[in-house]
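Fig. S4 source data, part A: sequence.
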Amino acid sequence: MAEALKDVLMRADHVKVSFKGKGRKSAVVKAVDDVSFDIYRGETFGVVGESGCGKSTLGRTLIGLLKPAEGHIYLDGTDLAQMRGAEWKQMRRKAQIIFQDPSACLNPRRTIRQILMEPFEIHQMTGKMDADARIMELLNLVGLDAYHLSRYPHELSGGQKQRIGIARALALEPDIIICDEAVSALDVSVQAQVLNLLKELKDKLGLTYFFISHNLNVVYQVSDRVGVMYLGRIVEIAAYDQLYEKRYHPYTEALLSAIPQVGQGNGQERIRLMGEVPSPSNPPAGCHFHTRCQKTCDRCYIEAPELREVEKGHLVACHLYNT
């Protein structure tokens, strides 16, 4: 399908998110720094990067849990910044989130039935539908049984808790789900089960995912397109097969070289980045990656590269290609 014909479900347009401490002289942390991209309906858009690069902040901003300092976020063509009151509440039904820690995101004082009933109560839907039947349907979708309804979160395993988190995200039939490190807190064997469940639900329900992870193999398994993030900026976007076949940005190249190659003794040599990641409260001028890049040019020190298309569907922010 041609890019122009794809249905853009969500668009981030020059989004910036900053945090400031309480003191007068507290530094401003630029968690998300001028990020733009489209998410197409029915795809899984993966975001990968080091811890602290702004992935989770970006995901929470997309669904309104955080407000951007600058820029706009559009859902189905509507600017979220313009929504108020009932319109904003209605938007909440279209965009949901699965959190990283399944233990922390479930109320320990409520039963599973009460937790799954809560979305319907908030949106005043209990009198318009058979909520109990819908809850049973949600349990079946995520592979749990009716006896789980009377249990409390502490009586469930980590995988079961995350399945409840997924069921809660599905309750209001959203168009897009933000998966914020949705499997990183789980055992490896359980990770595979939850990833398979997410893929099955996507195909069955026609869902769209914004999938955040620091695990390159996980992103590779689930994503249709991948965005690589470094110090608050998107540095490369491509379809997963394009990215793994040919990567342009030096940071992406270093990231992918770190993936273990099982049974390939003569595989690609790992690229070891020198130095530490700069502080987001005091990022370097120009290209944020120039302090660790082996291919730096004079332009990198003074000018931030724009995200541009270097081949069809493959975008990169690097002066090596922005000529």
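Fig. S4 source data, part B ends here. DSSP finds nine helices and twelve strands in the chain.
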